[in-house]
Each structure stands twice: as C-alpha cells, then as structure tokens.
Amino acid sequence: MSNDRSSVRLLVAGELRDTAGQLPVVNPATGAPVGDSPLAEADLVDEAVRAAHAAFRDWAALPVPARTAYLTRFAAWVRDHVDPIARTLTAEQGKPLSESIGEVKAVATAFDYYASAAPHVLGETIPTASPTLRSTVLRQPSGVVGAIATWNYPLGILAWKLAPALAAGCTVVAKPAEQTPLSTLALAEGFVAAGFPAGVVNLVAGPGATVGAALAAHPLVRHLTFTGGTGTGKTLMRVAADTLKRLTLELGGGSPLIVAADAPLERAVADGVKRAFRNSGQLCNSVQHIYVEAAVADEFTERFVTAAATMRIGRGDAAPEPDMGPMCGEAALQHVTDLVEDARAAGATVLTGGQRLTGPEYDGGWYFPPTVLTGVTDTMRISSEEVFGPVAVITVVSSVDEAIERANAGESGLVAFLYTTDLRTATLGAERLEYGTVNINNVGGGDVPFPYAGWKQSGLGVELARDGLTAFLETKHVRVELGY
Predict the structure, then answer these.
(1) Which residues of 100-131 are buried (b: 16+ CB within 10 A; e: fewer)?
(2) Which of 151, 245, 336, 378 could be joined to 177 by an S-S link, Cβ 3.0–4.6 Å?
(3) Rounded to 10 degrees, what is the CA torsion of 98, 99, 101, 104?
(4) Considering all CA atoms of the chain, what is the largest pairwise distance in Å, rounded to the nearest integer?
(5) How far is it, in rounded angstroms, from Cα 339 to Cα 336?
(6) Distance CA 172, CA 9 (A)
(7) Pairing state of beta strands 391-397 and 287-293?
(8) Number of domains, the chain
(9) Do residues 64 and 116 share a domain?
(10) Which UniProt keywords apply (predicted)?
(11) H-helix segments, 41-139
(12) Closest Cα to residue 166, out of 124, 225, 125?
C-alpha cells in the first residue's frame, strides 16, 4: 500500500475513484493538514448503492465457503499493511500508535472471526401434524447494507459492521466519519486485492448531512447500521422510517464504575484510569461516573487522582509513546471544556486537570488533561450529558444498592463496571444493572466473540458475536405440501 496520500481513493462499483471535491483532514496533535480525502456527493452515493444492489444476488448465492474466502484474503492483506494504516490512523485521529496498531489488527481479527462463524448459521425444520407437510425456516441475507462509522475507532467499528454483513451475504456501502476518512479509505486497496466482486464493497466519504443522509434515505438500502451520538442516531432512525429499514444503532454511553467497600482497590484504580482516559476518554464505554462506597472513598480517590495526574500526554507518534494523545477535534475539546466549566461554576471541585493544555509541546493541538471532579450534583450538565472526553466524576455513596440505583437512573445503558470480591454482590449487581454489558472486576471493551448491545437510549440491536451476523439475515418460513 502506498503512503502517498493522493493514492487514497473511494471504492465504487469495483473501481478506485478520485473526485473533484476534496475533504481536508487535520492532525489533532498539531492542527496541521494530514491530507485530503475524495469527497462523494449524493449522485455518487446513489451509484454505489445501485452497484451494491446489482451485485447482491450473485454474492448472496455464493456458497458460504467461497464467500468467506474473500474475507480471509482481506484479513491477510490487512495484516500485511498494519504499520502504514496505523500511522495514518494516528495522524488523523491522535491516539497513541500502539493503540492504532491494535485497532488495525482488530480489523483482521473481525474478518477472520466472521469467516469462521458464517458456516454455523443454520436454518431449521419444524415438525408438523401432517405426514406430507414440510415446514422449514431459512436465514437469508437482507440486501444492501449502509454502514456509517464514527471517528473514535473508525476502523474497528467499521469492521464490526462490514465483516458480519459480508459474511451473511449482504453487499455494503460504507461511510467513514469526516474527521477520519483516510485510514478507512486505505482499506479500499485491500478489498480490491482480495478480489471482491465489483459492487460488493463500496467506500464513500463525506459529511453526514449529505453522504450519511443519502444512505439513510436510499430506498435500495435495506439495513442501516450506525455508531455515533444518540441524537444523530435518532435522526437517522426518522429518515430510515420512510422505507422501514432494519436498524442497528450503537449510540451514546457514559459508563458507570461502581466500587464496593470490599473491591480489589488497586485493580479498580488501575482499570478505572484506563477506561476513563484511554483514547482521551473518547469511547462509547468510557468511565464517566464513578460511585464509591464511603468506607473506601478517600483512599480510592487519592489513588485515582494520583494516577490520573501522572499520565503522560503528547503526540500519538512520539517516542517514548504517551499514555494519552489529543482529542480528535476542536469541537470535541470545547464540549468537554464547557461541561467542566459548568460543573465548576455550579460548585463542583476539580481535583486534577480541568483546562486545555498549553505550551510549546501542545501548540496547535487539541489537548485536554485527565480530569477528576467531585461534588457534582444531578442538576449539572455533566450528570446528564455524555462527556466523550477525559473526565471522570467521583461520587461517594452509602451502598452498592444506591450506586446501582443512580447508575440505572440515566438514559444510557451500554456498559457498566462493578468491582467487588463478594459473589452475591457481583451476581445480583450484574442482574440489576440496566446495561447491555456488565463487567465485574475488569474493563474489557467490545470483542468480536461477545455480544455488544445498547439498552435504553444507547442503541438498537446487537453487534458482535453470532448476533452481529444474524442481524443481517432475514427469516423466511417455507411450507411445502407433498400430498398433492
């Protein structure tokens, strides 16, 4: 794969395309240009969707082993190009290079996983009351999939959508976020190299208001899958309603971390810092609200603040590598700044961090330090809005029951974390927390073998695991009378 940014092109109907319009991309660590992405317009989105529609019948009809062989070849290509793609990802998104390398490798893992999972999707035969009546259930691909990814994990999240959709027999038109299109478009060469038939995979780039809206509204798109903000998800849902598209939405998070009095404290602190500040807090499952039982609140807070305050911040491609890079854009940084200032003005205490980093090493970039707040009340904006930045709020509670009640009171329900050494607390807590994923004494994120679902306003449907594959299959009942 070439490192020349002019080689980054769209993929439409099996062809690598340049366009007259260009989408500038900026390095969040410096504010300097990274490159330009070709910019799709609504007519090119229509061409891509129609190409996917034309390719669907033959792709869906391929025997599963033949179809999944394409996924395996693509995974091998990705593994051969990890370094240049990861460097592009760090340049446009800001995360440390080792995290970008892990994300690129996760793309190959997802494609290999769904290549191996596809043969295990089975139909069934249902017994009937008649000796001459046969009733069978088929699982068949739903059609053209429109996939829209976000900028925090642009490659990993897109792989969660593309790999199962393709394995199921669907064709796809995918759109990366406008902040981070270059690393996604770098994959176009891989799809061509893997030999995917023309129209099976299409990659188009541009703003959500044009490209995303065109995908959501197109009548030939039968399934729309999106990861991003809850507000945008609701907008896409309204647009998709006109054609009754299937929807998979993975939306806002803002996760709670509950620390019981008997928690393994050292682990809770280390894991909490990791999940609160990884990728500059720009994760849908980032720890935002920490509820600590009073008996260990002082010790936990002191350890947590010390760990946060000593994190190293800098360019993701620096050596030695920092613990945390910049935020992805000025708007994201301003949102975090506003939420912290609102809380501070209303009486919250900032224990560390709290304002944009300045100085020669940060000039031009969008750096916000790990920030810890206490004294936050339910009336402050930070209590009800997703921060999506490196900010954690510590609240002292009288019991785990109170913590669970507070954690369940919000509108999000993606991931929750509970630290305790008591089996009863862990078991009942996991059952009572109203979240699609509950982690006990760990902060693992989304991984392909395990289902990932958003409850309440954190989404619709399930990604990953076998559920992520069956999401792209329609159910068909076939009833045959043999006694004619």
Answers:
(1) bbebbbbbbbbbbbbbebbeeeeeeeeeeeee
(2) 151
(3) 180
(4) 85
(5) 5
(6) 17
(7) parallel
(8) 2
(9) yes
(10) Oxidoreductase
(11) 42-61, 64-80, 82-93, 97-117
(12) 225
State which amino acid sits at residue 361: E
CATH number at residue 153: 3.40.605.10
Q: Is 29 helix (H, G, I), strand (E, B) or coil?
A: coil
pTM of the shown model: 0.96
- Count of residues making up the chain: 484
79 is in which domain, residue-wise?
5-251+458-478
Residue 123 has which token pair?
A: 């139909």
CATH number where 348 lies: 3.40.309.10
231 and 315 assigned to the same domain: no
Q: Which residue of the set 103, 189, 284, 386 is catalytic?
A: 284
Same domain, 317 and 466: no
- 221 neighbors 245 (Cβ within 8 angstroms): yes
Examine the domain organization and report whether 246 and 259 are in the same domain: no
In a shared domain, residues 91 and 232: yes
170 counts as catalytic: no
484, part of any domain? no
Distance from C-alpha of 299 to C-alpha of 352, rounded to nearest angstrom: 16
d(Cα 143, Cα 159) in Å, to the nearest integer?
Answer: 18
Domain assignment present for residue 452? The answer is no
Query: Rounded CA gap, 314 and 329, in Å?
Result: 15
Q: Is residue 353 part of a domain?
A: yes
Asked whether 21 and 181 are in contact (CB, 8 A), the reply is no
Residues 244 and 262 in one domain: no
Q: Which residue has the tokens 């912290």?
A: 340
Burial of 359 (0-12, 13-18, 19+ CB in 10 A): exposed
Establish whether 250 is a catalytic residue: yes
Measured between alpha carbons, how far is 151 from 160 in angstroms, rounded to an integer? 14
Task: Residue 431: count other Cβ atoms within 10 Å of its Cβ.
Answer: 8
Per-position pLDDT tens, the chain of length 484: 444 444 689 999 999 999 999 999 999 999 999 999 999 999 999 999 999 999 999 999 999 999 999 999 999 999 999 999 999 999 999 999 999 999 999 999 999 999 999 999 999 999 999 999 999 999 999 999 999 999 999 999 999 999 999 999 999 999 999 999 999 999 999 999 999 999 999 999 999 999 999 999 999 999 999 999 999 999 999 999 999 999 999 998 889 999 999 999 999 999 999 999 999 999 999 999 999 999 999 999 999 999 999 999 999 999 999 999 999 999 999 999 999 999 999 999 999 999 999 999 999 999 999 999 999 999 999 999 999 999 999 999 999 999 999 999 999 999 999 999 999 999 999 999 999 999 999 998 889 999 999 999 999 999 999 999 999 999 999 999 999 8
Half-sphere exposure of 330 (CA within 13 A, CB side): 8
Annotated catalytic residue, options 47, 92, 178, 250: 250
In a domain, 202, yes or no: yes
**Integer Cα distance of 155 and 197 in angstroms:** 22
Encoded tokens for 5: 């940014």
